[in-house]
């Protein structure tokens, strides 16, 4: 059974993309013309996002845009099922990530040799219709370039209220917040640390990570700063 989408702030809902709470988080962003989905979750789990939209009183015609923070399977593999349901939804990503998602460029693989073999498999390929860059806006969120976890990875920041979606620039698997989720999952760990440090220079209050619980204003910045201080990448 799909959990009810969690309202994080006005027009922003967190959805559990798999059955385990906070294991893989995607966002639904409300717009005047419908919804933007940020990331798609894992393969075979598109029903969870469809059910979330239904719970919010919307159907396939209301999903207008899908923005992908990076190309890793737990962020894009649900795309096939979603595009079958809402084929009209515009697909957006940064230039490097778009080249990988469309199959025009092979992905740069993680540092861990076992994970490299697991990641080097076939993934569905989709053309990306909208290329976005740092500073562009996605449904009220400014794109912040945070490479390292993947080479074109980005985070999203809504400057109006300081709501930050780090994607995998930070992550909590299973308990401790870490830079890049884990070193073994990063393509370039030192770059991931620099990107995490860059995010600390932004003004934010509430933090949503792709993996882990929502961090509230009372301790969000402290927990991210401690993660950077602990990092030895």
Q: In summary, what is this structure?
A:
This protein has 233 residues and is of the alpha/beta class. Helix content is 25%, strand content 26%.
Question: Could you describe the 3D structure shown?
Answer:
With 233 residues, the chain is of the alpha/beta class. It contains seven helices and 14 strands. It has helices at residues 46-55, 73-76, 79-85, 95-101, 113-119, 189-200, 220-230, and strands at residues 6-9, 12-16, 25-31, 34-38, 63-67, 90-94, 130-132, 137-138, 141-145, 154-158, 163-167, 170-172, 177-179, 206-209. The strands form three sheets. A seven-stranded mixed beta sheet has the order 1-2-3-4-5-6-7. A hairpin with a 4-residue loop joins strand 10 and strand 11. The termini are far apart. The model has no long low-confidence stretch (mean pLDDT 93).
Secondary-structure map:
Elements: E1 6-9, E2 12-16, E3 25-31, E4 34-38, H1 46-55, E5 63-67, H2 73-76, H3 79-85, E6 90-94, H4 95-101, H5 113-119, E7 130-132, E8 137-138, E9 141-145, E10 154-158, E11 163-167, E12 170-172, E13 177-179, H6 189-200, E14 206-209, H7 220-230
Parallel strand pairs: 4-5, 5-6, 6-7, 11-14
Antiparallel strand pairs: 1-2, 2-3, 3-4, 8-9, 9-10, 10-11, 12-13
Low-confidence runs (pLDDT<50, min 5 residues)?
none
Helical/strand content category: alpha/beta
What best-fitting shape do the alpha-carbon axes yield? globular
Q: How much is the radius of gyration in Å?
A: 16 Å
Question: SSE string, helix = H, strand = E?
Answer: EEEEHEHHEHHEEEEEEEHEH
* Amount of helix: 10-25%
Strand content: 25-35%
The count of DSSP E runs of length 2 or more, i.e. the number of strands, is 14
What is the helix tally? Answer: 7
**Order of strands across the main sheet:** 1-2-3-4-5-6-7
Q: On the 0-100 scale, what is the average pLDDT?
A: 93
Give the distance, in angstroms, between the N- and C-terminal Cα atoms. 39 Å
**Biggest beta sheet summary:** 7 strands, mixed
